[in-house]
Design a protein that fits this description.
This protein is of the alpha+beta class. It has a domain at about 5-100. The protein has helices at about 50-70, 100-125, and strands spanning about 5-10, 20-30, 30-40, 75, 90-95. It has a five-stranded antiparallel sheet with strand order 1-2-3-5-4. Strand 2 (about 20-30) and strand 3 (about 30-40) form a beta hairpin. The chain starts with 5 loop residues before the first strand and ends in a 12-residue tail after the last helix.
């Protein structure tokens, strides 16, 4: 688990269960409103379910409106299937209350991903098996 991820919670709000989705909420230093909207269908994972993507975007705007009063105060990150770690469709959402938080968020993400890539490279060089990740991370 990443030490910067604090107060992690998994919920299934109304509208999520019937789409095989769940909402992961957490906070990071100076970024209090972080979310991962996850689609976890049983069986084979579809490449992209556009109805789920539409649902995720609607939920992203709703989260932002609920937290800030503005439906457009967020950063959303969705990686294509070729570059993401997990096969399931998911979207990272960061509700931003102040403009400086966007720069801080990018700095945090750069540090997290650079560190992770460095550890993976060292493991490969030393022929160490990768650490197994939990499905909800």
């Amino acid at each position: 688990m990443n030490p910067l991820v604090l107060d992690r919670r998994i919920d299934t709000p109304p509208g999520y269960a019937e789409r095989d989705c769940r909402l992961v909420s957490y906070r990071m230093p100076f970024c209090r409103h972080c979310f991962v909207l996850c689609h976890d269908p049983s069986g084979e994972h579809p490449a992209i379910d556009y109805t789920v993507m539409d649902f995720f975007m609607g939920e992203t705007h709703a989260l932002s409106r609920r937290i800030t009063g503005n439906p457009h105060s967020f950063v959303a990150i969705h990686s294509g299937g070729f570059v993401r770690k997990r096969p399931n469709l998911h979207m990272h959402v960061f509700v931003i209350e102040r403009r400086w938080q966007k720069a801080w968020l990018y700095l945090l993400l750069a540090a997290i991903h650079t560190t992770s890539a460095g550890f993976r490279a060292i493991r490969r060089l030393l022929h160490i098996a990768p650490v197994r990740r939990r499905a909800a991370d």
